[in-house]
Amino acid sequence: DITALPRRRRRTRRRPVVLLCDVSGSMEQYTRTLLLFAHTLSRGMRDVEAFLFATRLTRITMELRAPTPDAAMAAVSRAVSDWSGGTRIGDALRTFHQRWRRRTLHGSAVVILISDGWDRGEPHLLREEIARLHRSCHRLVWLNPLIGTIDYAPLTRGLEAALPFVDDFLPVRTLRDVRELALHLGALNEHGHHRHLHLRRAAAGRLGADARPGGDRVVHPRL
Question: pTM for the whole thing?
Answer without folding.
Answer: 0.79
